[in-house]
Design a protein that fits this description.
Blueprint (H helix, E strand, L loop, with lengths): L1 E5 L5 E3 L12 E3 L3 H10 L4 E5 H5 L4 H12 L2 E9 L4 H20 L4 E6 L10 H19 L3 E4 L10 H9 L4 E2 L3 H6 L4 H7 L7 E3 L1 E4 L2 E4 L8 H10 L5 E4 L8 H15 L4
Parallel strand pairs: 1-4, 1-12, 4-5, 5-6, 6-7, 7-8, 9-12
Antiparallel strand pairs: 2-3, 10-11
Helix pairs in contact: 1-3, 4-5, 5-6, 8-9
Length: 273
């Protein structure tokens, strides 16, 4: 088992060009990506996860990022991307973007392609949205396989896949793997331990995240309200041996200290961390 940290601790912004160009709609983490990677390496995590925008727009391009990762002896574990998926007229543009991201990620030896999405309509979600989402995610599987990546779907607050019932609907319409994000799932009403057991054959990558309800926010591991011990136990019970990546997106405190706190808590859950 290996342990990583995402570079989105300073929060998330969207790419403004995406307002008028679907193919350019990328996630971007605040701050300098290089600084975030250096902090994570200094705390002795094994790898990092990047947003698609921070990957594509890294200063100096792929060569510069590859050189940085090598100098710090840290892996690029995964890249996070996403799409609406439910609007057929723009799906081709969305998949073009995801393929561009997958190709770049593979060139940098990433292993995982993590995908969020499933838009909410103004008038509310309709049942056919889950079919459209599933068909789109199955196309993502094909893209990931083309570049030697493992594709996983990441349920997320603010999408049509929040509640346990919605997670089941989405997963029943696709063959894609599931990336549990423990905070998003818990906030949506899921029991992480039960879900891990239910989808154990489809879990190849995990986002381990803690949170507080009031005020709502993502916090370093062990400082929130999640029963992380039970989640770790469930992962051990299914003999999970893949990457576990910590996220504290939008954390208002010191990001390096947050990474250190999470790392120390990880070591209480998994002694090899």
């Amino acid at each position: 088992m290996k342990f990583g940290h995402a570079t989105n601790s300073l929060g998330v912004v969207g790419h403004p060009v995406g307002v008028t160009s679907i193919k350019d709609l990328l996630y971007l983490a605040n701050g300098k990506t290089e600084d975030s990677i250096r902090e994570i390496a200094e705390v002795h995590y094994d790898g990092v996860e990047l947003f698609d925008g921070n990957l594509i727009e890294f200063p100096g391009g792929k060569k510069s990022l590859k050189k940085l990762l090598k100098s710090l002896d840290i892996d690029l574990i995964a890249v996070y991307s996403g799409a609406n998926f439910i609007f057929q007229e723009i799906l081709g543009e969305e998949l073009w973007k995801i393929e561009k991201v997958a190709e770049t990620a593979a060139e940098l030896m990433a292993q995982h392609l993590v995908i969020g999405g499933g838009a909410k309509r103004v008038g509310g979600t309709i049942e056919s949205d889950y079919k459209q989402l599933g068909e789109g995610l199955d196309k993502v599987i094909d893209i990931a396989k083309k570049y030697g990546l493992i594709a996983s779907f990441h349920p997320h607050l603010g999408t049509c896949v929040e509640t346990p019932e919605q997670v089941d609907k989405a997963m029943s319409n696709t063959q894609i793997n599931l990336c549990p994000d423990t905070a998003h799932l818990a906030a949506g009403g899921s029991d992480n331990s039960k879900l891990i057991h239910k989808y154990q054959e489809r879990i190849k990558y995990v986002h381990l995240k803690d949170y507080t309800k009031d005020p709502f926010g993502f916090v370093p591991l062990g400082t929130g309200q999640l029963d992380l011990v039970s989640i770790a136990t469930a992962l051990k019970e299914i003999n999970y041996n893949g990457w576990i990546t910590v996220e504290t997106d939008g954390y208002p405190g010191n990001t390096k200290l947050s990474a250190e706190v999470s790392k120390k808590y990880l070591q209480t859950l998994f002694p090899t961390a």
